[in-house]
Amino acid sequence: MDFAALAAARYSLRKFDPRPVEPEKLALILEAGRNAPTAHNNQPQRIFVLQSPQALEKADACTAAHFHPPVMLAVGYDPSASWKRETDGKDHGEIDAAIAVTQMMLQAADLGLGTTYVGMFEPEKLLAAFPEMAGTCPIALLPLGYPAEGAHPARLHGDRRPLEELAVTL
User: Fold this and answer.
1) For the chain, first and last CA: distance in Å?
2) Is the pLDDT reported for residue 1 higher than 80?
């Protein structure tokens, strides 16, 4: 599939098949996150792979978005590693981590897997549940897996504003 078709076809999957994600596919998805561009190439993104029943249950307790995927990626950034803009101190760690999430979502779609970006979670609760995440700022949960039978894009998936409203040529 070419990139334009992939970007248009990818949707937020909310109904997952329980079958596991193959390790080689997961490795490709993680590699896409590792290869994401970051400010000053500081690479502050941190990706936690949650796939044991215990880890998935703990993550599920931190969000109201319950999709029951076979894998959940918790993505954040290390603020001690992220670049801060000199003029105003803006921390680009969240931007860098979001770019990594985007690349992982697109790689997953290219492999026939689905994801949805979940921002509706309690970061402090997630950090308490997973001491391994200490020192990071979580930005997203990324449920990951195969679409379940009957899964489909949300009704509004194809609704897009006209390009003229989003892009301005000066």
Assistant:
1) 33
2) no
DSSP state of 84: B
Q: How many CA atoms lie within 13 A of 12 on its CB side?
A: 14
Reply yes or no on whether the pLDDT at 10 is more than 80: yes
Decide: 79 and 93 in contact? Cβ < 8 Å: yes
Please say whether the beta carbons of 10 and 105 come within 8 A. Answer: yes
Neighbour count for residue 34 (Cβ, 10 Å)? 13
| pTM of the full structure | 0.95
pLDDT band at 157; cut points 50, 70, 90? confident
CA angle 114, 51, 15 (to 5 degrees): 35
